[in-house]
């Protein structure tokens, strides 16, 4: 067995600083000119059926046995605007710096072309940096994209503060977790209608955890100041 922490077990100023920064962002009122977007990634492994599958009367896909063929991997990029009831999931073969940079370019130029700045909350993965934009695009264009971003990182061991992780969890339960997916084309065909349906129904995450809650419920994380 492995013991894993979702939050640090003791006083941790770095965790508290990043947590309070994210919670302050979540408390902002809706502003179309500065939308708050949460972003996360999820690896996916493809499995092709070694034998023919069958479909039950209720629409579920069942397999004649448990034999399968490993068929490579991919990554899902998830973006969501909690206050807008919007999310977007896109499958890519890799999740390199350039893949992330191109997703950010799409977010800024296609989804929010008129926003002054896009406020983005995400984990501190090594690909999630302004440097990735410069590694992918010409300096002038990379600077233009970077200048429209306001980045806030969740703390280490604090990915639960990223609302996009909640959307990925819903995606797993409602869409991709109950079936074998053989390739990226099939995966993308599942992602598009799932996002459209949730967007149409204005499904969202009602975030309730505030700065005040954190200072009470997670008091043990805050450094003790001796004056």
Structure report:
Helix 3 packs antiparallel against helix 4 (139-146) and helix 5 (163-176) packs across helix 6 (184-200). A five-stranded mixed β-sheet has the order 5-4-1-6-7, sandwiched between helices. A two-stranded antiparallel sheet has the order 2-3. The chain has a single domain (13-205), classed as Ribonuclease H-like superfamily/Ribonuclease H (Nucleotidyltransferase, domain 5, 2-Layer Sandwich), CATH 3.30.420.10. With 227 residues, it is an alpha/beta fold. It has helices at 13-26, 97-111, 130-136, 139-146, 163-176, 184-200, 211-217; strands at 36-49, 53-55, 61-63, 68-81, 86-92, 118-122, 149-153. The protein contains seven helices and seven strands, in the order αβββββαβααβααα.
The total of beta strands comes to 7
How many alpha or pi helices? 7
Radius of gyration: 20 Å
Second rung of CATH, namely the architecture = 2-Layer Sandwich
Principal-axes shape call: globular
Give the helices and strands as they follow along the chain.
Answer: HEEEEEHEHHEHHH
In which order are the strands of the major sheet placed? 5-4-1-6-7
Largest β sheet strand count, sense and barrel closure: 5 strands, mixed
Taken together, the total number of domains comes to 1
- Name of the top-level CATH class: Alpha Beta
- Name the helicity range: 25-40%
By CATH, the topology is: Nucleotidyltransferase, domain 5
């Amino acid at each position: 067995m492995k013991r894993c922490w979702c939050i640090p077990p003791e006083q941790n100023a770095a965790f508290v600083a990043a947590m309070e920064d994210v919670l302050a962002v979540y408390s902002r009122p809706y502003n179309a000119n500065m939308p708050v977007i949460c972003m996360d990634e999820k690896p996916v492994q493809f499995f092709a059926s070694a034998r023919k599958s069958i479909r039950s009367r209720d629409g579920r896909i069942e397999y004649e046995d448990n034999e399968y063929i490993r068929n490579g991997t991919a990554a899902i990029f998830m973006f969501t605007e909690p206050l807008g009831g919007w999310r977007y999931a896109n499958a890519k073969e890799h999740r390199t710096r350039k893949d992330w940079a191109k997703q950010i370019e799409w977010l800024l130029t296609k989804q929010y072309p008129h926003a002054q700045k896009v406020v983005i909350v995400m984990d501190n993965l090594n690909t999630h940096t302004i440097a990735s934009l410069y590694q992918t695009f010409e300096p002038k264009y990379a600077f233009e994209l970077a200048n429209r971003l306001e980045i806030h990182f969740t703390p280490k061991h604090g990915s639960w503060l990223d609302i996009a992780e909640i959307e990925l969890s819903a995606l797993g339960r409602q869409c991709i977790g109950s079936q074998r997916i053989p390739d990226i084309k099939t995966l993308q065909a599942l992602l598009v209608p799932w996002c459209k349906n949730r967007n149409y129904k204005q499904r969202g995450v009602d975030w309730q955890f505030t700065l005040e809650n954190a200072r009470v419920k997670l008091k043990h994380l805050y450094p003790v100041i001796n004056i």
